[in-house]
Amino acid sequence: MHTSIVLAALAGSALMLSACQSHQPLPPLAILPRPSAVPDAPPPTTIQPVTETIHGVTLTDNYRWLEGDNSDPSGMGKINAEVATWTDQQNAYTRAWLDNLPGRQRVEAEVRPLMEIGSVSAPGMYANRYFYAKREGTQNQPVYFYRDGYKGQPKELLDPAKLDPSGLTTIAWISPSHDGTLLAYGTYRSGDEASVLHLMNVDTGQKLPLEIPGKTQAPNWLPDNSGFVYNNLQDLSNPYSGQIKFHAMGTDPANDKLIFRQYTPEEDAKLATTWGPNGGLDQSGKWFILSYATSTASNDLWVIDFEEWRQSGKLVADFSLEGQKASSSIAEVVGTTAFLETTYDAPNGRIVAVDLKNSDEKHWKTIIPERTDAVIQGVSVAGGRIVVTYSVNASTRIELFGLDGSPLGTLRMPGIGTGGLSTERDRSEAYLSFSSFNYPSSIFRVDLTKPDAEPELWERPEVPVNPDSVVVKQVWYTSKDDTKVSMFIVHKRGLKLNGDNPTILYGYGGFNISLTPGFSGPLFQWLDWGGVYAVANLRGGGEYGEKWHTSGMLGSKQNVFDDFAAAAEYLRDEGYTRPERLAIRGGSNGGLLTGTLVTQRPELFNAAIVAVPLLDMVRFQNFLMAKYWVPEYGTAENEADFQWLIKYSPYQNVRKGTKYPSVLVTAGENDSRVHPGHARKFAAALQAASASDRNQKPILLWVDRDAGHGQGKPLNLRVRDVVDERMFLMRQLGMLQQAPATKQ
């Protein structure tokens, strides 16, 4: 199956002398005073209590009005004038804090060139054309190019700045036809992710008269360019109206034939706990592969003769896998053999060959069995080989196999880090994307017939830092229930680890998403100022397989918070930092993580970034697309789920009189995933409840009116956001008083 090109934006053990072993008392942390431009108190928030009893428990929600106007059935929460005014006041209070801290100009001057480091994607190969995205210098958004031949001259395809000089329009994806002569691409604006499909002629650069709205995703083309299959929403205001359609070139898209649509509540009582359908064509265009997610860890799967559907209009499956608590996908179909990647009876993944003409499970053949030391992250078929990307201790290993599963070697990589491979079925040429904390993001051309050969550098942006100046360690620590958890720790070479280093601890812990080493230019500014950066591989993530994921979801979600707290304790006990010098950071599900730690373990750290967060876990399922997350969290509509949700839900567990750390809560007004009401309500509750000195530990809220969940932000807004976070953290961790000498 052709993969559309999407440019992703960027987010050994050590024996240390602990502070308690040094016998030297650490000095009190010196915090800069409140800037004179900042009011003495945050803007007042009206209390409008709403009391209700849920499963016998009486709850009072003082700030429900901050959810906005929820008469919109889509749950978009259009803000009314009262909420808009309050948000403006909170934003002004936050800007007064962040814009008036001394040293902001210097920090921005240091961060900006690191944010202006270019980026390039691995090329997608279509006939002799190579399509890729690249951003240089001060460009707000990546520009898309193609080359005729891998060493050909770059030819510009799409520049978002020419579509919209404001920088707020994003090209979400591109999908070239098999021969590279036609291009489908998607755009959205201000982070709303409501992609509109457009078409262009690659040879002439001319835009063709076709647009398909509705959060349309990258299509799969038929090999002869006669049409394509695409996924979108039947009703943009209803995130649960997913559908799959076929567009025949030269016809009115209003007449596009429906292939499959999301089940209605009447058809499927599980609608509130499913992610819905996704479908596309294999490389040959003969097979339509349909998936229907039944949870964040499982899906049903069908392989259907596409031409038969076109003739009869009936979906008749040659292969189906239904009702299993497993994640399954088809890597490719070769002839009548489907290569199935699945966690069915294999939590770490296995590869099964299925004969589509004899597809009963008893005839399946496992050709690449599950491993205990590695987790399958991705599979493709290229040049007569099966390419398997594994995660081994939260880093990447890529191994090659014959179509019969015979081992053909391990791909040589530049080091230990994160890698991904762009392949095509018809060739052994492939492109490796690789990065690590101390290795700049780079694209290499590789030959899959020679896995031991030195990769050929294809493109790497210049970086104005010395990656060798950074030390990266992987350590293992013990969580509350004695589970061993891994963590990466990054700092400058030669840094004295004396228990007093300002440290950021980052985590996510959910949805089977893995946190692996990656290069970040702005991180070097933090490291240059003597900071330490730590990334914990919490349960709920995908680093160690499906068992690792499920041990951090639903009623086991508390494990994630315990893992994160144990990471903070490790950094304290092993002499990296102390609570006054420690900050935690997370976004989205990671914002739920940091919000929960604020309410459960406020003594462990001095500052928290709670970005685009879920925080009211009693009501989260009522908004936007959040019913899709019920399989991960549960829902308060179910009494058993309510019992664990109410125990950790950050908003309901804010306690008046508690000395909370300083918190910066952020949200995007156009967020189509996480409702900004979570951030508004939590910030209001913390401001009212915290017993900490608000001049020392302020609670700040920033709601970006030109952004959504974070995707597609232009460079200038991303620079502002990074500088905001840095100034906030550096002030709270006592760094602004001890700035390093300016580099000459």
Mean pLDDT over all positions: 92
CATH level 4 superfamily of the domain at 53-113 and 465-738: Alpha/Beta hydrolase fold, catalytic domain
| Proper CATH architecture of the domain at 53-113 and 465-738 | 3-Layer(aba) Sandwich
Look up the CATH topology of the domain at 53-113 and 465-738: Rossmann fold
Distance between the termini: 51 Å
Helix fraction bin = 10-25%
- Dominant shape: globular
Helical region count? 13
Estimated radius of gyration: 26 Å
Structural class: alpha+beta
CATH hierarchy, class of the domain at 53-113 and 465-738: Alpha Beta
Count of distinct strands:
39
* Relative strand content: 25-35%
Q: Unreliable stretches, pLDDT < 50, 5 or more residues?
A: 1-23, 70-77
The biggest beta sheet is recorded as: 8 strands, mixed
In spatial order, strands of the major sheet run 32-33-35-34-36-37-38-39
Report on the architecture of this protein.
- This protein is α+β, with helices and mostly antiparallel strands.
- Among the domains are: 53-113 and 465-738, Alpha/Beta hydrolase fold, catalytic domain (Rossmann fold, 3-Layer(aba) Sandwich), CATH 3.40.50; 119-229, no CATH class.
- It is 17% helix and 32% strand.
- The strands form nine sheets. It has an eight-stranded mixed beta sheet, sandwiched between helices. Strands 3, 4, 5, 6 and 7 form a five-stranded antiparallel beta sheet that branches. The protein has a four-stranded antiparallel beta sheet with strand order 8-9-10-11.
- A hairpin with a 2-residue loop joins strand 24 (375-382) and strand 25.
- It starts with 18 loop residues before the first helix and ends in a 12-residue tail after the last helix.
